Here is the input.
Amino acid sequence: MSAQRSATRSHYTAGVIQRLATANNVAVVVTSNDVFAHHVTRLSGDDVNFDPIENTIVALQRAGILDRVQAVRLQARYLRESRP
Here is the structure.
């Protein structure tokens, strides 16, 4: 696969996620529970940092646009495509 095609493909799912959020007027909103969960995982030595696309997937699930299975599959596809 050429470098250009690989770069285009790696952003495909991210674009799908962003368009889905835009079409449904969904924005990422950090809640106090999100902050709490971040600190608990950080203090337990399992620091997890989602990027903006992964946060958008969570926002889409919270808004009821995606169910849990769809969100997990979409995140897995996004991570697979963004892997070098």
Summary: The CA atoms of residues 57 and 71 lie 6 Å apart. DSSP finds five helices and no strands in the chain.
